[in-house]
Amino acid sequence: MAEPKAPRAPVRELRAPAAAPAQEVPPAPMAEEDEHYTFEDYRDFDDYGDAPEQDHAEASGYDDYAEAPQDDYAAAPQDDDDEMPENYGPAPGAFDAAARPELPVAQPRKAKVEQPVRKPVQRSRRAQQEAQPSLGFDDSESEFELPPLNLLMSPDSIERHHLSDEALEENARMLETVLDDYGVKGEIVSVRPGPVVTMYELEPAPGLKASRVIGLADDIARSMAALSARVSTVPGRSVIGIELPNDKREMVSFREILSSRDYGDGNGKLPLALGKGIDGDPMVANLAKMPHLLIAGTTGSGKSVAINTMILSLLYKLTPEDLRLVMIDPKMLELSVYDGIPHLLSPVVTDPKKAVVALKWVVGEMEDRYRKMSKMGVRNIDGYNGRVKDALDKGEMFSRTVQTGFDDETGEPVFETEEFEPKKMPYIVVIVDEMADLMMVAGKEIEACIQRLAQMARASGIHLIMATQRPSVDVITGTIKANFPTRISFQVTSKIDSRTILGEMGAEQLLGMGDMLYMAGGARITRCHGPFVSDEEVEEVVSHLKAFGPPDYVSGVVQGPEDEKAGDIDAVLGLNTGGNTGGEDALYDQAVQIVIKDRKCSTSYIQRKLGIGYNKAARLVEQMEDEGVVSAANHVGKREILVPEQA
Question: Is 300 annotated among the ligand-binding residues?
Answer without folding.
Answer: yes
